[in-house]
Amino acid sequence: MDLDTDKIDDAVLALLLLGLHDGCRAWKGFDWDAMERLHEKGYIGNPRGKAKSVVFTEEGQERAERLLEELFGKRA
User: Fold this and answer.
1) How far apart are CA 33 and CA 17, in angstroms?
2) What is residue 68's predicted lDDT score, i.e. its pLDDT?
3) 65 near 16, Cβ under 8 Å?
4) pTM for the whole thing?
5) Who's near 73: CB < 8 A, 6+ residues apart?
6) Banded model confidence at residue 76, pLDDT cuts 50, 70, 90
7) Percent of the chain having pLDDT more than 90?
8) Nearest residue to 30 via CA among 49, 50, 5, 11
9) Are 69 and 18 a contacting pair, CB within 8 Å?
10) Which string of DSSP letters, residue by residue, matches 3-64?
11) 50-74 mean pLDDT
């Protein structure tokens, strides 16, 4: 099956927001390829390294908030 990696990246970015802590850090327990693509798109800091979390960029956190509502929010 061909997968739309942009849709996967959007879902991962939104779900990263659920692990938000210390203002702009999120636990990085997701697929490494998706994390690397999010870094390349400028939404998160470099996911490589020993830290168990990654830093959202301002743009990335704003996009994650919109996507979380869009993808997973309940409709009234």
Assistant:
1) 18
2) 96
3) no
4) 0.90
5) none
6) confident
7) 93
8) 11
9) no
10) --HHHHHHHHHHHHGGGEETTTEEE--S-HHHHHHHHHTTSB----SS-SEEEBPHHHHHHH
11) 96
